[in-house]
Amino acid sequence: MMVLITYDVDTTDSAGQKRLRQIAKQCVNYGQRVQKSVFECLLDPEQYVQLRHRLEQIMDPETDSIRFYMLGTNWKKRVDHVGAHSSYDPEGPMII
Amino acid sequence: MRKLLNTLYVTLSDAYLARDGENVVVRSGDEERFRVPIHNLEGIITFGYTGASPALMGLCAERGVALSFLTEHGRFLARVTGGVSGNVLLRRKQYRMADDEDASLAIAGHMVTGKIANARTVLQRGLRDHEGRIRGEVVQKAVNSLAGILREIPGAGSLNRLRGMEGDAAKIYFEAIDELILEQKETFYMRGRSRRPPLDCFNALLSFLYTLLAHDVEAALETVGLDPSVGFLHRDRPGRASLALDVMEELRPYLAERMALSLINRRQVDSKSFYQKENGAVYMDAEARKTVLTAWQKRKAEEITHPFLGEKVPIGLIPYVQSLLLARYLRGDLDGYPPFVWR
Q1: Which domain holds residue B181?
Q2: What CATH number did the domain enclosing B211 receive?
Q3: CA distance A28 to chain B (A)
Q4: CA-CA distance, B252 to B117, in Å (whole number)?
Q5: A71 vs chain B: nearest CA distance in angstroms?
Q6: What is the pLDDT of residues A16-47, one digit of tens each?
């Protein structure tokens, strides 16, 4: 299933900047960065639980927030892109 | 059922593959061209003399992602595999049965039956779909001859005799398949199979598709814990994936030859897609390879009902399903190896 992940991390102190970097890194490991703090991740349920757990470990629930949008397997109907930085389809032909 | 994951094809001649965390990164020059999480992939195939970092190779081995290096023409060069894994008891069983002529004959007989049955179906489909546009009597004759060979297989008696029947069937089949080429007959024709190097456009296209299929079948055999190099129909030879070739036999007509025909008949490839070297070898150009790869990937994502399992599976998982069935047969869970027979 496709999961859209967005986050807001409080970066007023250096600990916050560190959390931001770590959260971004985990998201890159699991998916595609489509905007600065927006990721599209094609995951199976196990991977979703794993990633979610890791992010919860890193974040500070007092100041940060993370949102998971479940787009399901029919996600292509639910995503429309306009403008620069188009993304690739992780289920389509990948030829470089 | 396992999920069909994607295959990454790298056709850039100066690309370098590296690892970054859990990502596969494709670099060209100083520029990052592509980045994808490893868990979205089940295979990576690179064309041309590209490089890959040891860290990436390690990651692929650890995650069971098949990484193959091919020349820019699609000839196989090398494959990266991790430590020997899987079930040693299963592999021992496989070796024992491969050493036993009768046991090998039983398996190989099923595989050849599958191959000829599928070849026959390809011809019959052609007859049905293109009635009037082809010389039906020529194709019908081949269909009948193949049926005759099919009946003789159970009494083959020895592996060599079986190999002979397989060769006869292939000859009849390839002669008849020429009739199913409806478009661009001046460029594409089948006057016998040539390989290493392929000497005409149709053979070049077939060779390329076989290489893609071989990569998938080898990876599937490794996944279920079988040794791809110890075959039943094909003899052992250093560097040859005999079992992969065995399992490929029954899949070739359905997956490769049919695709080659439809690429030609729909004019997705044409004479401009090929070039000839001084030694007569014919190769596909980069643009055509991309067309073929795209068609191949799309085909793999389509679903069919597997004739033996009765379950819906993506076409790309057929090599895996067949490997699994073969492993079950070797273990003794099935009474015979059920080849993939397309209906």
Answers
A1: 88-331
A2: 1.20.120.920
A3: 7
A4: 11
A5: 17
A6: 899 999 999 999 999 899 888 899 998 988 89
